[in-house]
Specification:
The structure is a homotetramer of 157-residue chains. The first copy, chain A, has 157 residues and is an alpha/beta fold. Chain A is 35% helix and 25% strand. Chain A is built from five helices and nine strands. In chain A, strands 4-3-2-1-5-6-9 form a seven-stranded parallel beta sheet, with helices on both faces. The interface between A and C is medium-sized, with 26 and 28 residues.
Chain lengths: 157, 157, 157, 157
């Protein structure tokens, strides 16, 4: 009998975030866990922590790929800390380890993750996040979602 | 009630290996899983694959931190592939993500992992692996083990 | 007598580019060299090659920080190839090694470099490149320039 | 007329070092510069600084590939600081950017560089540095040199 393929989705966003972004992230985390999806993130606070909290509350698995040298920097809801010691270069591993990326809000670090994902042909779903235009023309590569459930649906298709 | 702390041990060694090394690695993997330890490795073949196979056979969790851009390069016993796209720089993440490292045989890539672990004060247990001397004097930082069970015991203390 | 501080400016853009972008890049390279600025780039073709060509033609110094394992991938106008073997993680070193960044056109790789630069508070000057908005509001962090001379002027102030 | 190919040699060793090691490193740096070779190193103190000092004193070019986020961490004799922000992963770029490596003394970081060089088939010349054996048998990949001039000679052939 075929083993069911596991799915990995990255949730990216600021290490500090608004209450509204945290709510979105937590809801995304819960929804991913309910669907049996493994959550990948950068392992720190803000959106990452809220998403891990949501996933953990539903019994999901959470992976945090950390920039520094110590697993203790991980938020308390990271179950599997990956310690890279490579600073922001870890952003690349966060997105490459996922089949799709959900971006919530976010600053330039999040934008770098969006860029690396798009460069690697990994779909990016956006909730209240960056939008792009190139040489004056809109680039619609970031797939917009209106709410956490829709973001997860789009990430899984 | 306190949540029991999870433990992560890295198993490192050649991407190709002898039958004897594969046996050692598989036994190490089995023993780690029996003790509830999560196995971290570089995710490819040889010693890495044998260790993952052993761990999986006992229901253990296996993480493979991959050098390339595609999770499909992971051996079939890797449950959690981390895709770094950073080549041998991933060696650093392999050892830094563990509380101790067990080295089995191995070539220069393994030696780089041993070096990075010792540099980060992560204990290294050796089974038929490298030994070092510095400026003519033996460096005994690699803790020798006679067999897989002893290696795991030493890694856990 | 005080040694005059050397200046490093990164020129970023697509590995393939339009003829117009190549012209802009070459002019930027020439202008940087005339001002005694050292050019840093990703070392490959397109905008990177045109910029290095321009700089070399005026006797400037060119550094190419390469993603792969072989210096031979550098374009012929790179004088100092840095070989990272780390794939797109090298994008971070390209921008961090500069005091300012000039972006010309570019795809998602360029956008990742813009992001990493802004995250590190390194000014980014744009010539026909990306523009950003965040959560619906324009982010004007990329400083627009109308032509190569203006781009270099702005990068040096 | 053919452009003469530039040569890059890496000098590796501890960020702190003995007076004798510093003397060796400075002599190696001087000799490299006299031969028109560009010096690559990790950009910090100890052996790296002494080698850069020697090279600079003879008008040579020095490149320092730094682990941190700030070029100011470079020793004062680094002319071209490359800022990686990637921690010890920069060790890989140090050796890969060279056609040969000269190791002087050194700790585990140096050993990791030796390992990465040997893994990439880049010759390593040793002055009072590590020696290796694998599974009980000596590994003679590190080419011994008795003095700085011999080290440079061997690195260039």
């Amino acid at each position: 009998m075929a083993k069911k393929k596991k799915r990995f989705i990255a949730v990216i966003g600021g290490g500090e975030c608004s209450a509204q972004e945290a709510e979105l992230a937590e809801a995304v985390g819960r929804e991913l866990a309910r669907r049996g999806v493994i959550l990948v993130c950068g392992g720190l606070g803000g959106v990452m922590e809220a998403a891990c909290k949501g996933a953990s509350s539903e019994g999901g698995v959470t992976i945090g790929i950390l920039p520094g040298d110590n697993y203790r920097a991980a938020n308390p809801h990271v179950q599997i800390p990956i310690v890279t010691g490579m600073g922001y270069a870890r952003n690349i591993a966060v997105v490459k380890s996922a089949q799709a990326v959900i971006a919530i809000g976010g600053n330039y670090g999040t934008l770098s993750e969006i860029s690396h994902a798009l460069q690697s042909n990994i779909p990016v779903i956006g909730l209240n996040t960056w939008s792009l235009s190139r040489n004056g023309r809109p680039d619609n590569s970031i797939i917009p979602a209106q709410n956490p459930a829709e973001a997860v649906n789009k990430a899984l298709t």
